[in-house]
Amino acid sequence: MDIRHSVHPEDAKKYTTDELRNRFFIQDLFVPNEVKMVYSHVDRMITGGVCPIRPVLLEAGIGLGVDYFLERREMGIINIGNAGTVTIDGVKYDLNNTDGLYIGMGAKDISFSSADASKPAKFYFNSAPAHKTYPTVKIEKSKIIPNHLGSIDQSNDRNIYKYIHPQGVKSCQVVMGMTVLKPGNMWNSMPCHTHDRRMEVYLYFNLPENAVVFHLMGEPTETRHVVMRNEQAIISPSWSIHSGVGTHCYTFIWGMAGENQTFDDMDHVAMETLK
After folding, report:
1. What share of the chain is helix, strand, coil (3-state, %, to 5)?
2. Of 136, 138, 64, which Cα lies nearest the Cα of 107?
3. Residue 29 to residue 231: CA distance in whole angstroms
4. Taking the CB of the first residue and of the last residue of the chain, which one, N or C, has fewer CB atoms within 10 A?
5. Backbone angles phi, psi at 65, to 5 degrees
6. Alpha-carbon distances of 56 from 50, 109, 121, 257, rounded to whole Å
7. 107 and 85 Cβ atoms separated by less than 8 Å
């Protein structure tokens, strides 16, 4: 497991491009038959990916100090690949593309498999510490009523799908969802915001091979950018904005953990404040 330590915003101002990427940028999440994970000391969020050609078991390893991965954690999963199955303590959950799954604390035996090894699933997950057990729930994207935001005039016409949140599938602290930009739109989360009470992780996908997203981060008066490509993720500390503009429309998964789960609890940043 790759470990990422917390970063003070005053230090981030001095980072080179490589240093910025080393601290926050996540790539190579979907290596066949491996569980790839990044552990962030920001709210102790784990970001991971599994691309199973054959069944792959989720193991805690030595870094978490527990007997099994979800002994003291919960997890949200969204499948961004082809059809696959997550098996939890003998119970199978079939997930098609963009279907999700919440797994409560205490689930012991978790494995991932693909319906067709030649067309594997790609399970993306966020996991955070938990204090109680909520029920494991399959989340079908087709049953989520999206929130429509933005407009073509602002190049941010998009639909937001909330998977794990207080008014839907319950969790201790993980909040998770997906934003789909409509064709011809490139901006997300602009005007931007921070939220001092929680961190966030973005996974960008559905990008063509030669397309990129310029992900904006940093304090509002000290912004930086990270160039990102398909199926790459980035950690956003609570003090950082998290916006992006692409050379093509795209989809991204947002996952949060921290003090609260209120979706609209945001510290909005005026456009004239940005530098």
Report:
1. 10, 40, 50
2. 136
3. 8
4. C
5. 70, 30
6. 8, 11, 12, 26
7. no
Q: Are 206 and 250 in contact (CB under 8 A)?
A: yes
Task: State which H helix or E strand residue 83 sits in.
Answer: none
132 burial via Cβ count (<10 Å: 0-12, 13-18, 19+): exposed
User: pLDDT tens digits for 229-271?
Assistant: 999 999 999 999 999 999 999 999 999 998 888 777 888 999 9
Torsion sign, CA atoms 147, 49, 30, 22: positive
The number of helices, as runs of H, and strands, as runs of E, in the chain is 2, 24
Closest Cα partner for 117 from 51, 26, 192?
A: 51
CA distance 199 to 41: 11
Q: Which fold has domain 2-273?
A: Jelly Rolls (2.60.120)
- Compute, in degrees rounded to 10, the torsion defined by CA atoms 157, 121, 208, 253: 30
Please check whether residue 213 is in contact with residue 242, taking contact to mean a CB–CB distance below 8 angstroms: no
Q: Which two tokens stand for residue 69?
A: 């991965």
Q: Which pTM value belongs to this model?
A: 0.96
Q: Which residues 6+ apart lie within 8 Å of 115 measured at CB?
A: 82, 83, 84, 85, 94, 121
Domain ranges of the chain: 2-273
Here the tokens at position 193 are 């915001």
Consecutive H or E run containing 23: helix 17-24
Query: What would the pLDDT profile of 106-141 be if each residue is shown by its tens digit?
Result: 999 999 999 999 999 999 999 999 999 999 999 999
